[in-house]
Specification:
By secondary structure, this protein is of the alpha+beta class. It is built from 3 helices and 6 strands; from the N terminus they run E-E-H-H-E-E-E-H-E. Helix 1 packs across helix 2. The radius of gyration is 21 Å and the shape is flat.
């Protein structure tokens, strides 16, 4: 679960024009992206919280990735407690008849993550928002 009593999430305003109504413009809050955290950052953070070394954590993450891939391709959804469920989806074209519908219509395969319900509820309870014009990293 989240390790904070109140987490602060920065957002910025984004102006969008409605494509269906020519002159309708609205502003929407969007989360501010501070950057990207990678495997090296993840292994260092996790190793600092337990008795595993960064190499141990990297080994676990590598094996986790391989096993998840194996199970997804086999047709399973993969549920990771407190994170979410991974599943495969297709981007494909339709056909006029069932006889014409085959694998050639699949354009590409995507991996989707549906966030865990407990995680989503925890976020809703604990996150507060702060508007920023420019963020300092």
């Amino acid at each position: 679960m989240l390790n904070c009593s109140l987490c602060l999430l920065h957002y910025k305003l984004v102006k969008k024009t409605n494509r269906l109504k020519e002159n309708e413009v609205k502003f929407y809050p969007q989360p501010v992206k501070l950057g990207v955290k990678g495997t090296k950052d993840l292994t260092k953070e996790i190793a600092g919280r337990c008795s595993l070394t960064r190499g141990d954590v990297l080994n676990v993450l590598s094996n986790l990735s391989e096993v998840i891939n194996k199970w997804l391709v086999a047709g399973y959804h993969v549920k990771l407690d407190n994170l979410g469920t991974l599943r495969l989806t297709f981007r494909s074209e339709g056909s006029a008849t069932a006889e014409e519908c085959d694998a050639s219509l699949v354009k590409y395969v995507r991996v989707r993550l549906l966030g865990d319900m407990d995680l989503r509820e925890e976020l809703q309870k604990n996150v507060t928002f702060e508007k920023v014009s420019k963020i300092k990293v």
